[in-house]
Design goal:
Layout lengths: L10 H19 L4 H20 L11 H13 L4 H20 L26 H9 L6 H15 L4 H5 L6 E2 L7 E5 L5 E5 L2 H9 L23 H15 L7 H14 L4 H8 L4 H22 L1 H13 L1
Antiparallel strand pairs: 1-2, 2-3
Helix pairs in contact: 1-2, 2-4, 5-9, 6-8, 6-10, 10-12, 11-12
Length: 319
């Protein structure tokens, strides 16, 4: 396949043509979200502009470590933070990997390239008490209040991403009394997983069943316009619910997902089960929650264990 580019008038044109094919691959074959496609397209496009700015007529096969170092050093000199640099690198990693897998390149120039280290912050879950106040608050009257309650239960009770919850349709729910209630979720990269539904979710669903149009293709959260609840609207509603419940701090949907995972670990759930429930491709992503859970356990131990209390008393007695 790669041989058809040998007659191309310029190597940079090869680069641009491969970039276009990469975008088509992301959207049609990989099933990436529009946001991911746009981000990766932008990453590759910025690198091409960098080469053009230096008047370099190069194709992907001509890229080496020195060019990559120059590119990212320029971004650092412009003041980009490590997280922003990592974001710019992400699309290039996927692009060059795709070029190798498709036979366009023999070697991946960015493989193992680590020009910067991004510290990964630990997830910040809500406490179980805070989640309880959020879930047990008096809901907004009417259908909107029932929708908000269902959304909260999906985010915390099943650990869904906000985009996954907003895009759910009735046909994804399995709430037959003879089986364990669950929901079929299409996550990142088009990966499908089956996640249990909480009893509280099923109860809320049945209480409001007379007001729902339960057709398989109908959105579970139609939103004010009927075209689907947007993630921005969902985030805004969550912030308002947190204010009403007296839950302070930065409240966003992913904190409920963090809380779901951390609280499961706190109560003895297996890390690989949590990985499956969250839809993480790599176990390392899920293992961040073990650090949070360990830190919380150590704090509780220090506050409550009798041995620590005895040590504190004996120390006071010695004084």
């Amino acid at each position: 396949m790669a041989a058809q580019f040998k007659t191309s008038p310029a190597r940079m044109e090869q680069f641009k043509l491969l970039k276009t094919r990469f975008e088509l691959y992301l959207s049609s074959e990989r099933g990436a979200s529009p946001r991911t496609v746009h981000g990766y397209k932008d990453d590759v496009g910025r690198f091409i502009k960098f080469l053009e700015g230096r008047h370099l007529d190069l194709g992907p096969q001509n890229i080496d470590r020195s060019l990559l170092q120059d590119y990212f050093q320029g971004l650092r000199d412009r003041g980009l933070a490590p997280a922003s640099l990592a974001r710019r690198c992400c699309g290039l990693r996927h692009f060059f990997r795709w070029c190798v897998e498709g036979g366009w390149l023999k070697h991946d120039p960015i493989l193992g390239f680590r020009p910067f280290k991004v510290p990964r912050p630990l997830p910040k879950p809500l406490s179980e008490g805070e989640v309880g106040r959020l879930l047990n608050q008096t809901p907004t009257p009417g259908r909107r209040g029932r929708e908000e309650q269902l959304l909260l239960e999906l985010l915390y009770g099943s650990g869904l991403r906000i985009s996954e919850a907003c895009g759910l349709r009735w046909g994804a729910l399995q709430i037959d009394p003879s089986t364990t209630p669950s929901v079929r979720v299409t996550g990142k990269g088009g990966r499908i997983r089956q996640v249990p539904l909480s009893r509280a979710f099923v109860t809320a669903l049945r209480l409001g069943k007379g007001t729902w149009q339960r057709k398989s293709a109908t959105l579970l959260f139609p939103g004010p316009s009927g075209r689907g609840l947007t993630t921005d609207t969902a985030r805004m509603r969550l912030r308002r619910m947190a204010q009403r419940a007296g839950v302070t701090g930065q409240i966003h949907p992913h904190r409920l997902r963090h809380s779901f995972a951390t609280h499961l670990l706190d109560h003895g759930a297996d890390i690989r089960v949590i990985q499956e429930l969250l839809g993480h491709q790599q176990l390392g992503t899920t293992e961040a929650y073990t650090q949070v859970s360990t830190a919380r356990t150590a704090f509780v131990y220090a506050q409550a264990h009798p041995r620590d209390q005895l040590n504190a008393v004996s120390t006071c007695d010695q004084k």
